[in-house]
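Q: what does this look like with fe (ii) ion bound?
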Amino acid sequence: MRKPKLFLHIFFLVVVLLLGSSSIFLSPITIGAGAVPDHITLTWADDPQTTQTITWRTAADEVGGQVQYAEAVNERLFPERAITITAGVEALYTNIGDMATHSATLTGLKPETRYVYRVGTPNSWSESRYFVTAPSVPKAFSFLVFGDSQSVNYGVWGTTLHTAYQANPNAAFFANVGDLVDVGQDYAQWNAWFSGAQGVVDTIPVMPVTGNHESYTPQRQFSMPVLFTAQLKLPLNGPDNLKGQVYSFDYGNVHFVMLDSQEGEQHAFVPDMLERQKVWLERDLQTTRKKWKIGFIHRPLYNNKDGEGDVNIRGTFGPIFDKYHVDLVFTGHDHAYARTYPLYGGMITDSSQKGTVYVAAGRSGTKTYRNLLAKDWHEFFYNPQDEPNYLTVEVEQTALVVKAFKQSGALIDSWVISK
Ligand SMILES: [Fe+2]
């Protein structure tokens, strides 16, 4: 009779240790959805100067969700004089139960303005939070980049995100290079990811790309990244059948293009996904007049392991990045922090005026690889086995300043592209 009891005690101890102990920043991981909004998430589905998209989760039977918001300067009148809008609601079907996703895009906002907001219903409002719209004239700004956050313990991801944000409280937004979670259709992992991200993702927007792991089911079959697109409401300006996971947006003087490298995983659903993106990317880059162009794609064009890597991805996108001179491309998948020399046509050039610098963003979660390898194209290479890492990008009038930091704050690398 004693053994089952002892087993239960040990089981609960292990669960508590796994879920709760890893970060001083984190609220407890929410297992199920309730009436009170959680997973409150900012993204930009539209113009960062005048809109703000806010998404959250509740139990499946909660309807009539609203957003109340006001300029923060009038905060003493909040919520009495707030604007109230009704959110859209969608069923969220997951492997651990049905839930609801609520989302609204606030429009007509003033640029470069701080707003206070809360979400929910008159019976169950969230606490108030804040966001800031983008300036209408390009100014210097910064953003954060996170490598793969897939983890056995998402508290580690939460600590990387929170320490990065605390060190850079003026960051306009953050980007993830894909593989946010290890099993994209396992909702328990999203619960843990959002729990780690609360306190930041409800204050500055996340603008992520998908990785191969967003296309895995718990049975290790391939799928479209449906839980990613259901919860992260991104611009719908991408190619047909890839909307919400392939997109572009502008912030300040930068045009961002966000691509999907999961040809193998998504082939059965969108057989021509690379061709579609190629046509779309060419048209997208033709029309932008922004000074800087920055791309994000999960699988690297120039890899950080033995062998040539994904030559299909390189062959599809490399010539377009060359033709329109994309300054920087951030990648994931290998969990290395590395940057190439400026590359043009696959060859090292001596100038970032001509070539593109490809940056492997490292890892923000627990997963590491021992078999990473510096290649001829690398100007800097580092395998972050000791600690997770994050990147900061400062966009100035004539320079992009990129820095890589360990989770604990130690500088790994700092470099500049001037134009
Ligand atoms: Fe990956």
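The first helix runs from residue 2 to 20. The CA atoms of residues 282 and 320 lie 6 Å apart.
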